[in-house]
Known about the structure:
The chain is built from 7 helices and 7 strands; from the N terminus they run βαααββααβαβαββ. The chain has helices at 18-28, 33-38, 45-60, 88-102, 104-120, 143-158, 172-177, and strands at 10-12, 66-69, 74-80, 127-134, 162-166, 181-187, 194-200. A 7-stranded mixed β-sheet has the order 1-2-3-4-5-7-6, with helices on both faces.
Amino acid sequence: MPSLPSEPAIRHAQCSDASLLTLTLAAAFDNDPVAKFCIRTDAGRERAMRAGFKRALDVYQPYGLTFTANDGVGTAIWTRHDQWQLTFWQECSLIPLYMRVCGINRFMRLSRGFDTMKSHHPVERHYYLYLLGVHPDHQAQGLGSALLRVMLARCDREQMPAYLEASSPSNIPFYQRHGFRVIRKFQFGPGGPPLAAMWREPQSAG
């Protein structure tokens, strides 16, 4: 008899996972509308993508809510409602990196897009899904759902809502299947691609 497919192996990401997770995120978001709008398009684009996602891991992984699927082919980066926003000095320190990642002409697209996201972010207590990505070679294998389930189960135990921004319209049905609903739509800054702000109320065990 053919063997049944094994369940995805989900665990907390470790510091040693960062290099592989950076590559996974860069590949997963290669065609993402926000990335295409903001990231430089010259020969340095691949290096810029890796640098941008490494920054995200450096900032948010220490909070202990970053997960990996099957040892690095997928990852989800979460934060609490009181952790996601950078301080003024953190943002200032990241300007040189953003300039390298975006190029001079696209830097303001990223800056204005982040400002728009902040203005729409809920103030209620919640867990925030900052990034969820699966390497293209491993998509459609249930890894994204498995990565979601581990934190959504925690949301339900703690009776904590969850929030995310879907940057690709094709991902909205995926999140809806996991209990999220669209609460508003807005553009990632002037002229930017549309984002769908999605919210999930915690579900009771009964």
